[in-house]
Amino acid sequence: MKNPLVWATLALVSLPACSSLATNFDYDTTYDFVGLRKYSWVDKQDNSISTKRVRDAVDAELHQRGYEQVTANPDFQVAAYVSSKDRLSVVDWGYSPSPTGYWSHGHDIEVRQYVEGTLVLDIIDPRQNSLVWRASASKAVDRTWTPEERDAEVREAVGVLLAEFPPKKSR
To answer: What pLDDT, in 10s, does the model give residues 32-45?
Structure first.
């Protein structure tokens, strides 16, 4: 191999680009999040295993942070949505490595199909019936994950998302 640094760099770059958690957060900057302690779930939720997994992770995370789940008069409501979508990743490397270790002029195009899972968490003010906080996380998922691995992935995503709740107002 003529240039091992080039091959090492290629190996790192060609690792799945979507394996990390991509997150997004938004909130109503006029809403006062101080004093929120009690929550309940929005009733209109599906009863899938994925949603149950998310609800369990959210309940555990909120409980650990001192929030109490109630059935009446919550300070805020939580809604969770999960989805998956088939995606394609296309990378045109521009040049191809030749068997001699040098770059040739042919194009090396890499196409990879994967499934992207998305989790959305909403915080709703029940008195105004308005969305006040939203977070989402997306990641390439592996359909061969065991239920335990799926639990761990969901717990990680929920922990990352709820680390931003309540929001820290910018100064």
So the answer is: 999 999 999 998 76
